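Rather than argue in generalities, we reproduce a single protein record, letters for residues, whole numbers for local backbone shapes, just as it appears below:
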Amino acid sequence: MAGKIIIIVFLVAIVWNLGAGLYYMMTDKGGSDRTVKALTRRIGLSVLLIVLVIIGIATGVIQPHGVGG
């Protein structure tokens, strides 16, 4: 159950940073680097989430299953 909560928290943080990047892009009009920082955080969180899922599958914390098969 904790694994699902961690994944949901990461997804919320990723979407939050994506929205922040869009907001900063619209309001700053190229005046600062906040857009780049928000999108860089989003990419970092996405990569970290993928690594955590791979580790979770390798250690048995996450049980993958086939869909429809």
